[in-house]
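Students often ask why inverse folding is considered easier than folding. One informal answer: many sequences map to the same fold, so there is more than one right answer. In these notes we will look at a single instance of the problem. The structure comes first.
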C-alpha cells in the first residue's frame, strides 16, 4: 500500500501521536507550510548593519532604543534610534548606511506616524520628523479661558496641555483697566501679548506672579487682548504622558486620537490626545483626558472596527467614540469604557494584534481570538492554539514579560515569540509551525519584510531575502500506522521537490520508539535549480508503526510537495504513484 501527503502538509500538531497518512508533523523547525500544502525551508535572518563606537583604547556596542518602518509621503522609511542619534536607512541599497536625522535622548523610545509626521517620544523628549527635518514638539497652547474681565473670571474653554507649559487667555478689556488678572498664580513668565491680533510692543510686566501690569489703559474690546503665559506643569503631571511606553491611534468613526498607556506609575490609566483648534492633533494631551481601567495593569489595546478593546491580565473591556455635550453646550468626543469579559484578558504587555479583524491575546488556556456574538457589545474569547498547546503550557511557566507578538500580514502569519523561538500561526491555511533563531528585542513589519533588532544589530527577514548564511530545517512526522493490524515493510519513498542552490537533504526512518534510524543523504550544489523527484528504498522491516524525519540544511532553497511511502505486506507491493 502507499501512504502519501497528497492533500498537503498540515503543519505541526502536538496532539497527534498516531496517523494513517504522513502529512502531520510532531516536530517541525524552520519549515513553513504554503497555501498549496507544500513545506518550504525558511530563509535566513539577514544582517543589515551593526553599530559600534571605537576609540583609541575602548570599543563598545551602541544600543538601539527604537525601530519604526513605514511611509512618510511616498517614501519608505526604516528609522532607528541609536545611542542618542535618530537615523534612517535606504534599505533598497545593497549596503545601506545610516543617514542622520538628528539627536534625541539615549532612552527607549516609541515612534508612530500621524498626519504625515513621524512622532518620536524618548523620555521627556517629544519630536516629529517630516521626512527632511526633525523638530522638537512644543505642544499645542490651549486657550484656557475667554471673555475674561480685567479682574478675572470668564468662560473656561480648554484644559491645560500636559506636554506644554504655556496657556492662552482672551480678555475683554473695559477701556479703564491697566491690570489684568490671570487665572493662575505662580506664573513663570509672560510669553506674548497681542491686542486685536497684533503683537503688543509697549511695556508691560508680570505683577505678583498672577497679573499683567500695563503702563497704559487697554482700549475696550471683546476678546481683543490675548495673553500667553508660561507655568511649568508639575513633574508628576508631565510624567503621566512621558512615562508611557505604548501608543495606538484610534478615533472610532470620528476624528483620530493617540492613546497612550504602559506607564509604570499609572499602570491602569489610558491617556489620549484631543483636538487642537478643532483639528485632530497628537500635540495636545489635556490634563483630564484619561480613563482608569479596572484595578490591574493595562497590557494591550487594539482596535476592532469602530471599537477599542482593552485588556488587563484577566479582564477585557471595550470602548468607542461618542459625541457628548458639556454644560455650556460644547460638543466633544468621549470614550466611555464598558466591561467585556471578567475572566480572560492578555497575560503580557504587547502593542496589540488583530488577524482577520479579530484581536488575539494570550490567556491561561493559550492564544485566543475574540469573536463577536449575536448579543451586541459582547465578545467571546476562543482558544485556537491547541495544536501547539503543550509548548504554550510550558511557556506559561516562563516570564511572560519576554513574549512578543505581531502580525506578518503579507504572509498571513501571526508570530508569537519567546526566547528566540517563533510560534507561527498561518491564518491563511490554518497551520502552525515553529522557527528558531528568531532572537530580537524589537520587531517591525513593513510590507513583505520583517525588521528585527538584536543587541546593536539590525536584521531583515522575508521570503524574497537572499540567504547569506545556512539554515537547518527539520520536519518529523507523528507515528505512521501503515495498516490497522500487524506489521509491514517500508520499501520505498518518492517525493517531488524543488531545489535551488546548495542544500543537504537527509531522509531518516525509524521503527516505533526506537532510537535507531535508517538514513539516506542527498547533496545539491549551486548549479542545481529546478524540480526533481527523489526515490529510494529505506528497507525498514516489520515496522508497526514508524516515523519519517526530513532535514534540509544549507544556504539554498528547498520545497517538498509531498511524500509517498510504499509499504509491503506479505511480500506484495502496491505502487500507485504520488498522491
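Output (designed amino acids):
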Amino acid at each position: 500500500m502507499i501512504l502519501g501527503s497528497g492533500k498537503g502538509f498540515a503543519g505541526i500538531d502536538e496532539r497527534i501521536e498516531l496517523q494513517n497518512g504522513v502529512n502531520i508533523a510532531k516536530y517541525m523547525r524552520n519549515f513553513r507550510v504554503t497555501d498549496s500544502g507544500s513545506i518550504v525551508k525558511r530563509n535566513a535572518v539577514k544582517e543589515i548593519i551593526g553599530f559600534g563606537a571605537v576609540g583609541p583604547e575602548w570599543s563598545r556596542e551602541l544600543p538601539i532604543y527604537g525601530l519604526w518602518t513605514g511611509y512618510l509621503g511616498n517614501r519608505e522609511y526604516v528609522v532607528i534610534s541609536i545611542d542618542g542619534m535618530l537615523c534612517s536607512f535606504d534599505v533598497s541599497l545593497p549596503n545601506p548606511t545610516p543617514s542622520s536625522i538628528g539627536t534625541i535622548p539615549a532612552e527607549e523610545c516609541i515612534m508612530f506616524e500621524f498626519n504625515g509626521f513621524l512622532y518620536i517620544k524618548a523620555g521627556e523628549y517629544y519630536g516629529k520628523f517630516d521626512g527632511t527635518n526633525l523638530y522638537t514638539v512644543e505642544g499645542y497652547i490651549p486657550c484656557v479661558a475667554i471673555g475674561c474681565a480685567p479682574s478675572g473670571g470668564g468662560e473656561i474653554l480648554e484644559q491645560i496641555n500636559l506636554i506644554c507649559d504655556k496657556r492662552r487667555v482672551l480678555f475683554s478689556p473695559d477701556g479703564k483697566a491697566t491690570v489684568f488678572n490671570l487665572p493662575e498664580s505662580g506664573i513663570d513668565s509672560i510669553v506674548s501679548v497681542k491686542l486685536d491680533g497684533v503683537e503688543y510692543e509697549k511695556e508691560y510686566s508680570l505683577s505678583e506672579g498672577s497679573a499683567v501690569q500695563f503702563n497704559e489703559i487697554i482700549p475696550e474690546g471683546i476678546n481683543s487682548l490675548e495673553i500667553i503665559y508660561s507655568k511649568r506643569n508639575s513633574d508628576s503631571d508631565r510624567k503621566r504622558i512621558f512615562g508611557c511606553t505604548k501608543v495606538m491611534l484610534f478615533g472610532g468613526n470620528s476624528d483620530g486620537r493617540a492613546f497612550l498607556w504602559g506607564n509604570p506609575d499609572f499602570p491602569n490609566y489610558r491617556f489620549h490626545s484631543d483636538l487642537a483648534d478643532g483639528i485632530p492633533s497628537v500635540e495636545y494631551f489635556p490634563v483630564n483626558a484619561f480613563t482608569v481601567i479596572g484595578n490591574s495593569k493595562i497590557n494591550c489595546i487594539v482596535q476592532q472596527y469602530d471599537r477599542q478593546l482593552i485588556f488587563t491580565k484577566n479582564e477585557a473591556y471595550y470602548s468607542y467614540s461618542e459625541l457628548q455635550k458639556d454644560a455650556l453646550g460644547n460638543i466633544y468626543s468621549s470614550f466611555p469604557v464598558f466591561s467585556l469579559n471578567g475572566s480572560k484578558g492578555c497575560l503580557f504587555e504587547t502593542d496589540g494584534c488583530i488577524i482577520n479583524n479579530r484581536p488575539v491575546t494570550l490567556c491561561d488556556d493559550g492564544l485566543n481570538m475574540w469573536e463577536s456574538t449575536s448579543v451586541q457589545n459582547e465578545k467571546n474569547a476562543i482558544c485556537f492554539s491547541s495544536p501547539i498547546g503543550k509548548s504554550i503550557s510550558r511557556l506559561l511557566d516562563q516570564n511572560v514579560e519576554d513574549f512578543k507578538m505581531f502580525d506578518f500580514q503579507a504572509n498571513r502569519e501571526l508570530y508569537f515569540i519567546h526566547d528566540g523561538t517563533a510560534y507561527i500561526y498561518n491564518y491563511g491555511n490554518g497551520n502552525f509551525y515553529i522557527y528558531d533563531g528568531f532572537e530580537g528585542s524589537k520587531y517591525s513589519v513593513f510590507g513583505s519584510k520583517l525588521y528585527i533588532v538584536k543587541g546593536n544589530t539590525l536584521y531583515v527577514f522575508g521570503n524574497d531575502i537572499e540567504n547569506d548564511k545556512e539554515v537547518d530545517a527539520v520536519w518529523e512526522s507523528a507515528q505512521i500506522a501503515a495498516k490497522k493490524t500487524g506489521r509491514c515493510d517500508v520499501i520505498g519513498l518518492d517525493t517531488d521537490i524543488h531545489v535551488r542552490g546548495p542544500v543537504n537533504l537527509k531522509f531518516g526512518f525509524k521503527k516505533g520508539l526506537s532510537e535507531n534510524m535508517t538514513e539516506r543523504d542527498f547533496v545539491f550544489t549551486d548549479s542545481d535549480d529546478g524540480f526533481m523527484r527523489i526515490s529510494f528504498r529505506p528497507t525498514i522491516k516489520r515496522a508497526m508503526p514508524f516515523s519519517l524525519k526530513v532535514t534540509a540544511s544549507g544556504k539554498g532553497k528547498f520545497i517538498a510537495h509531498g511524500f509517498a511511502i510504499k509499504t509491503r505486506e506479505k511480500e506484495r507491493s502496491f505502487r500507485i504513484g504520488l498522491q
